[in-house]
Design goal:
Helix content is 64%, strand content 3%. With 414 residues, it is mainly α. The chain has one domain (2-393). The strands form 2 sheets. It has a two-stranded antiparallel sheet with strand order 1-4. A two-stranded antiparallel ribbon has the order 2-3. α3 (71-88) packs across α6.
């Protein structure tokens, strides 16, 4: 859906407000979200490269770095909540059915396609290609539990759940207007309880022993950040003004929180925890770190958006990357896995012949470059929405002239 509205110069469009402070409508293209998407998915690829090129289980330095990057999954879920709620502002006749029909296929179909692709990849690379025709029940099970062959696909699986539950999320956020701080406090308490349960409860028998480990691929461990994004959309201008006004304080808080979390990580190591467990993405003490780092990334994106006229190339890169971020997220693990597939003994050939940290840098550069190229090809292929979640761009006729836009008005597509 496309709308135009008068825009406040600087960051994005302005919006009228109700007496309780919630905006009555959405307005303006949110350039800052392009920067948030690109920064975050580049960090996600780096995290996956770091933990696959180096020893993730016992590498204390590797996991110390990874500890500060786990916030990225929550940043994406907060961004999802913000974008969906922003698109629903002022829509008094919001229809869950229309929302599901429009949104769900764009994530569900690519999820199934890529889950199948990763499953076939694993079957082939483990020497089980001949078993593919008689192992389809295994594929169905993997898809049902979040596409476990592609370790990043749980994110898309959770996103599908967010889309299905968003009408309820929107209803709750609207019904609690004027009490959003209380809503977030309750949501945060539930989130923290979920972190404690995932981190410290490990049933090994019965129903919970079989299925509890799948909790990471459900809506529950991320619901706070979805509500945070939705509430932010309702109070966007006030939140963004606060982030811009207090950017130095946010950066200081981020630095202090990262140092504090590193100290706690070292204490967990001294207590006998192995590095991969000590740096768990669901460590309860990390929740504050995630919140502060998300605020810091958003503040950076706001300042970039405000100065986009001085950064035209960077803005163009952000726009290009944001449009392809979903496809890049889906495909990058396949590219990274292929890069690390050649082995010398039991180790990837790359890590044997290229010392750290250069092996990580090289693998990251190649993965990003090849993945972007692959997604560019897929985005122009037939049925592109099956692969990258976006319809392939239509070619403009040579006789068509671009429509001129009024400098003080901006277009937003949600």
């Amino acid at each position: 859906m496309t709308t135009t509205a008068a825009a406040r110069p600087g960051i994005s469009g302005a919006s009228s407000a109700r007496p309780d402070g919630t905006p009555a409508r959405r307005s303006g293209y949110l350039y800052q979200l392009d920067f948030v998407r690109v920064i975050t998915f580049l960090l996600v690829i780096f995290l996956h490269t770091l933990t696959n090129v180096n020893d993730q289980v016992n590498g204390s330095v590797t996991d110390a770095i990874a500890l500060n990057l786990h916030f990225t999954r929550n940043a994406f879920f907060a961004l999802t909540g913000l974008v969906l709620a922003y698109g629903a502002l002022g829509d008094a006749k919001f229809s869950a059915w229309k929302f599901w029909r429009r949104r769900v296929p764009l994530v569900a179909i690519p999820f199934v396609v890529w889950a199948a692709a990763y499953w076939v990849f694993d079957m082939v690379t483990t020497g089980n290609a001949k078993r593919i025709p008689v192992s389809l029940t295994g594929l169905a099970s993997n898809i049902a539990w979040g596409g476990v062959n592609g370790y990043q696909l749980y994110f898309i699986f959770v996103t599908i759940q967010i889309y299905l539950l968003f009408p309820a999320v929107l209803w709750i956020v609207r019904r609690t207007a004027g009490h959003h701080v209380r809503l977030l406090l309750v949501s945060a308490a539930a989130q923290l309880a979920m972190y404690v349960a995932i981190t410290h409860w490990s049933p090994n028998s019965g129903f919970w022993g079989d299925y509890w480990w799948h909790a990471y691929a459900t809506f529950l461990p991320y619901q706070f950040f979805v509500f945070l994004g939705a509430v932010t959309a309702m109070h966007r201008e006030r939140v963004e003004a606060a982030l811009l006004r207090h950017t130095p304080l946010i950066f200081a808080a981020a630095g202090i929180t990262m140092v504090g979390e590193q100290l706690l990580y070292r204490l967990r190591l001294r207590g006998g925890a192995v590095p991969i467990d000590a740096s768990s993405a669901f460590e309860p003490t990390s929740m504050l770190l995630y919140l502060v780092l998300i605020a810091a990334i958003y503040a950076v994106a706001l300042r970039m958006a405000r100065n986009r006229s001085r950064l035209p190339r960077l803005t163009a890169v952000a726009s290009y990357g944001a449009k392809r971020s979903f496809g890049v997220f889906l495909a990058h693990v396949m590219v990274l896995s292929l890069l690390l597939l050649p082995k010398q003994g039991t180790q990837p050939w790359l890590t044997v012949h290229v010392p750290a940290p250069w092996s990580t840098i090289l693998a990251y550069t190649v993965t990003v470059t090849v993945t972007v190229a692959l997604v560019e090809v897929l985005s122009h292929a037939p049925m592109a929405h099956w692969w990258v979640g976006r319809k392939r761009p239509t070619k403009k006729r040579a006789t068509e002239q671009p429509k001129a836009q009024t400098p003080t008005r901006e277009t937003v597509s949600v």
